Amino acid sequence: MGTVTKPLTILVVDDTPADVAQLEAVARQLGHAVIVAGDGIEAIEKYRSASPDLIFMDILMPGLDGIEAARQVRALPCDRWVPIVFFAAPDSMAGILRGLEAGGDDYLVKPADLQVIRAKIKAYARALTLQDESRRYARELAAWRDDAEEQSQLGQYIIGRLLDSAGLRDPMVQWLNTPAQSFSGDLVCASRGPGDILYLMLADAAGHGLSAALTALPLTQVFHGMVAKGFPIHTIAEELNGKLKAFLPIDRFVAASLVALDTRNQTIEIWNGGNPDVLFINDQGEVAMRWPSRHPPLGILPPALFSGATEVVSYQHPGEMVLFSDGIIEAENPDGQRLNMHGLEALLAQAPSGERLPAIEAGVARQLAGRREHDDLSAIVVKVPIERRQTVRSSQAASAPDRHVSEWRMELSWGPEELRSMDVVPALLGFMGQIKGLQTHQGQLFLILAELFNNALDHGVLGLDSRTKSLDGGFERYLEEREGHLNELRDGRIDMAFHRHLLDGRTVLDIRIKDSGVGFDWSAFLDSSNDDQGLYQTHGRGIRLVRNLCQELSYGDNGSAVFARYAL
Q: What angle do CA 440, 444, 450 make, to 5 degrees?
């Protein structure tokens, strides 16, 4: 089916009535409108007033000839193509050439055959119809581009605000996130949880641009929300995977590295699913530890098959942790050679501590040699210090008495099923965070509850020995034993009671925890004379910390019962 052409307005410029009549008859027969000018001056005036689509122009005319008229027409502003067809005698070939140079598009030799005139008009009608369609498409494209640009700017602003967190301004953290397109499908997140533990996430969504950014974006609020409540890494990984699996199409997924850095206890906990190795670089620039991916990316496996199992190590020397997306090591030079892991480790080895992130940026820039990256580039470099632990004491002792506090009590019991499947301390903090007067104490309460509950579970119900942590590789062995005993737990319980009340004009929170175990030797850890020698031990520090945070701390029943009083 042929293109349906639009009706044209044709300007015929000629001082010979017979030639005008011939052109006008053919044009009107084809359904087009015709306007006539007898010379070049009149042609210019009618061109301005009528805006014709097509012009047939005689060359030899009195006054202003066709060539000059064509030149002046072309000098006028116009946002579309208006063809000019010269109509000349056979001996005017030189004039035709001059006319084409002046802006003409075609010519007819007088006297023209009617079939030729008809064919010319039809051809230009088709061309001008296509021109109109092209202009319409161009306008639609421009409108779409303007709308897309507006949406892109709004999207960048919103995503930028969502990703901007105080954790990324932590003095221990350096990071980069460079998108291959307008939006980055990589996420870098850092956040301090209760107990001052530093949590990190580097996520790399499949694909590029806005679609990848939208895939990864929901992870941020889940990550920050769960970190604030003190959930462990394995639970965070399970929740992130469940969220993504629920709404992502089957071909979408997110590689991720999750880290919990506890400088107080000198431990690093990592879950790596689909990302390159996480590295620990010592002060000599050597790779002292590495954590390769041991899990598939988030969003692939259903919750029943997903594993949030983490790797936990204790560190004895300072250094820097380095997390990065595959865009870093896959950056290609002009010869198509990738930076790869060996090249990245060489960059890190040559850079001093504190300068390793700039070294990564400079190395990737040299690799790309000014070319645009093909993948998003992201990295996090975290300083891992060894610091003498300062004594932590409650800052609430000097607060003003509160004689209008409401008294409340809560008692809870946790059996084997709950102890195996629940993260008890985050659940408790989530509830207490809703109680007026407790919100500002979340950090201290996390430290107290985590220590007392974990002692009740590990040493009371599970019967683990903390001294295992002091052996070579003992921390990892201790965690393996803990997981094994917990999976096999079929008996035992932990009872907890909380009482907020006034005591001597001050508000206090009494915490009582009782487990079903046989107890443990707690007495040495409450001896203040052991503070200095215990600063670098891998066990027992938590009890001293709780003692310093609380007004009172006492054990009973051989360690299976503990009472703590915290001043609010």
A: 130
> Could you tell me which of 184, 246, 240 has the C-alpha nearest to residue 212?
184
- β-bridge pairing 106-109 and 84-88: parallel
d(CA 449, CA 546): 9
DSSP 8-state symbol, 354: T
Model confidence at 84, pLDDT cuts 50, 70, 90, reads very high
Query: CA–CA separation, 345 vs 363, rounded Å?
Result: 11
Closest CA to 189 of 148, 240, 146, 147: 240
Interval 340-374: pLDDT, tens: 999 999 999 999 999 999 999 999 999 988 887 77
Q: How far apart are the C-alpha atoms of 496 and 452, rounded to whole Å? A: 10
Dihedral angle over CA of 178, 179, 183, 189, nearest 10: -40
* Domains of the chain: residue spans and CATH: 9-135 (3.40.50.2300), 164-384 (3.60.40.10), 408-567 (3.30.565.10)
Q: How many CA atoms lie within 13 A of 40 on its CB side?
A: 17
pTM above 0.90, yes or no: no
Q: What is the dihedral of CA 399, 446, 244, 166, to 10 degrees?
A: 40
Rounded to the nearest 5 degrees, what angle is found at the Cα of 375, between the Cα atoms of 369 and 376?
100
For 501, the enclosing helix (H) or strand (E) is strand 494-503
